[in-house]
Structures are given as structure tokens and as C-alpha cells.
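Progress against Task 2.4 (sequence-to-structure conversion) is shown through the following example record, which the project officer requested during the mid-term review.
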Amino acid sequence: MKRPTLAHATPLAVLALGVITIGTGGYFMVARPPLLPEDARFTGLSVATAPPALLQWLSIVFRTWGGFVVGLGFCLVGLATYAFTRRDAWLKRGTALGVLIAFVSFLVSNLQLHSDFLWFVAALCVVAVAVAGLLAIDRGGGERPRW
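C-alpha cells generated for the chain above:
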């Protein structure tokens, strides 16, 4: 039996980081309160004294951050799984899912905020959906591009 090497430890570490990152982003998206105790200390605000609109805005902001963190986590999981299997499909799936989660959550928050830059965020989301679609349909046939 072969002894585990650093080459084995690295994908495991990336996988663990990806899973923890997804969990952290999930917390930001669904469970994080708008103000943590350190936020209140730093800003001098409390949930009781903060304007309700500020608390609502912070909730939207943290859901958006959470979406980007979850998206990064899926990219890391896809990378780690690729490192174990050497199958491009895992790298593509992880990247596609990560990009979709990040940019769709960004679009949703900007819709909620009635953003003046909704056109730009929507354009980013369209590009992200196109990238995810390209990754999903790419079967890896033919010559690989040299980047």
C-alpha cells in the first residue's frame, strides 16, 4: 500500500476548504443576522437602534456575499474532485455551478434593491449563464486550447 503524499493531501485540503466555504456562505445566505456583536461594537449601532431599512439592506448584502462564497466553495470542490479523478467534467460542473450561484444571487439582490446598475448586473448574469451553459455542453472533444 502506498503512503499518502503531499500530492494526496493537497486535494483533500482543497476539498475540505471548499466544503467549509460552502457552509460559511450558506450561513451568510440564510442564518446570519444583519448585525453581529462585533458589528454593533464597531459601528456603535444595535439592532434596537439601527434603522429598519439599514438592517434590511444588510440582510440583502450578506445574502449576496453568501452567494459568492458558496459559488467559490463549489469551484473549490470541483477543483479538488478534478485533482482526485482527472476528469474534466468535475472541474466544469463545479465551475458552472459556482458561477451560477454567485451571479444569480448578485442579480437577485440588485433586483431587490431596485439598483440603478441593474442593467450591468443583468449583463454579468447573462454572461455567467452563458459560461455555465458552455461548460455544461463542452464534452472535451478535439484539441485543447493553449492558454
